[in-house]
Amino acid sequence: MYCGLDPYTGTYRRDLDGDYHCSREEVNSMFADANLASPVDGRILKNFSKEDLDADSIKQYRRRFEQWNPDQVWNALPEDRFLEKLNVFRKDRKTGEYGLTYAGLLMFGTYSAIMDENPNFFPDYQEIQDPKERWVNRICPDGNWESNLFQFYSRVLPILQNFLPKPFQLEGNQRRAETPAHVAVREALANALVHADYTENASLNIYKYPNKMVFSNPGIMLISIKQYYQGGESICRNKYLQTMFTFLGVAEKAGSGTDKIMKGWREANWRSPNIEELQAPDKVVLTMPMESFLSEESKRKLTEKFGIIANSFDHNVLTTLALACDEGYVTNTRLRYSLNLHKSEISDMLKLMTQKGLLVSEGYGRGTRYILPAKGIDVLREDDANVASSGANVATSDDANVASSGANVATSDDANVVLPDPNVALPDSNVALPKRYTNEQLKEKVREVCSEWVTAEVIAARIGRDVNYVNNHVLPKLADVIEKMYDIPHHPRQKYRAKQKEANV
Q1: 360 and 499 belong to one structural domain
Q2: What's the domain count of the chain?
Q3: Which residues span the domain enclosing 465?
Q4: In CATH, what number is assigned to the domain containing residue 206?
Q5: Cα angle: 468, vertex 369, 339; to 5 degrees
Q6: pLDDT, tens only, 368-400
Q7: CA-based angle 149:64:155, to the nearest 5?
Q8: Is the pTM for the entire model greater than 0.90?
Q9: Is 180 within 8 Å of 263 (Cβ atoms)?
Q10: What number of other Cβ atoms are within 10 A of residue 151's Cβ?
Q11: Residue 378 maps to which CATH number?
């Protein structure tokens, strides 16, 4: 939003908590993103030359280029002309200026030269086996390699793909080593590199956990999340970098990268990837879970909360509860790309699940999140009439079925959704909370909420406080009684748990 005459003093940005004033850096980034005819990475750098490029990186790239494009006429060109074709060097037709482009420096430059132009440049890969421990393997600028984008991509991609299963598949008479999941990881990594905003004061991070991969790049999305999942739309911040990766068979300009990512994970029978935007600093985070939609841990937690009826929930209801369990909360938008339902049908389902006590809502409007209740619902008997009832549709007030058009929300034609009896008491989290806590009351309340790993949003909902207040004022004061799951500042999936009391010796 903009008001007044000066964009640097009158530009505001809206998030879920309200409007805040944009800094000069944010406004400059908006101007740069809006100028699609002159990409930032096409800028010609002053006082830089071919001496600032890593010769080995250029040779390695050219070998891969020839393997992927064996009939390309550029293969016969001398190196200088080849680099011009890639726009590593280019001439500005308006000014006549000729020189090394920012894209060329990022892709093939020596790390010292890149740092001279962008001191914030720091591509970082971390492999983390235990969330409570530090990384066990890390690839970052450490002085042992020329830390440009091509070298980072070449080092990280084989490591990530090595974690993927390789089923025995024949294509013709030869074994097919690459699966759709391998393609998905390649696209995700390349997309993070070419869509990053390298003017942001933030680093590019790739994390590998035992059960997921996380691709986090600085900047904001230039298309909506809806357009991202639909595919077919391609607006790239760094068009010259995108072209360089396109000649390696990735980061195509057809907007098909998302389709490849979703297809690869779907064929691996893993939960669908999730993308979100974070602020302060601006980041786009793509999380690719490497587990089925209902993990063993989710089954255990849901059974603890809802008893034996958890085994009878409809697929859509169970998927929603599993996501809320694993990710801390769900939203209508998140479910829209995980379930084959229209957003209005998802709204009806979430409303009904909230009424029945399966979920607790927090926030309002588009910012509404749904979390699991604090203590679940009283376990119903297996032979309870409400558990095994059949022949009755689970419908909203306007008789619209929760499931997709014309179908009951059921796991089969004869079994309808099994939801708790509406007369069962709601979870304790719905009980009115005190307006003020003493320090000791607050500490005990948070310890109670954090009996298991929970997010800051869950803590805020349980104690009746704003999540920003919890992050800025509550959690920092309770470091002696709670611990973090990830020892990484501003981790997008950060969770907290009460410290375990040591047994007396």
Answers
A1: no
A2: 4
A3: 432-505
A4: 3.30.565.60
A5: 145
A6: 889 988 765 543 333 332 322 223 233 333 333
A7: 40
A8: no
A9: yes
A10: 21
A11: 1.10.10.10
